[in-house]
Design goal:
The chain is 75% helix and 0% strand. The chain has two helices and no strands. The longest helix is centred in the middle third of the chain and has 38 residues, at 14-51. It starts with a helix and ends in a 10-residue tail after the last helix. The model has no long low-confidence stretch (mean pLDDT 81).
């Protein structure tokens, strides 16, 4: 806990601020693409089940 308090008390440098902003942009971009990919997968699953004429339920063998 002392280490955390020491780090908290230290003022941030311009380089640290720039690094944090860069990481935030990267994380936001990754989150956007993951949401986009998940939406595309969901849409593909829905349209595939509709186009195949099935009810969306698994076929029994």
């Amino acid at each position: 806990m002392k280490e955390y308090m020491m780090l908290e008390a230290k003022p941030l440098t311009q380089a640290e601020i720039a690094n944090a902003i860069s990481r935030a942009h990267q994380m936001r971009s990754e989150a956007f693409w993951m949401a986009f990919i998940n939406a595309a997968k969901w849409l593909r699953k829905i349209t595939h089940s509709k186009m195949s004429g099935g009810s969306g339920l698994a076929h029994s063998s």
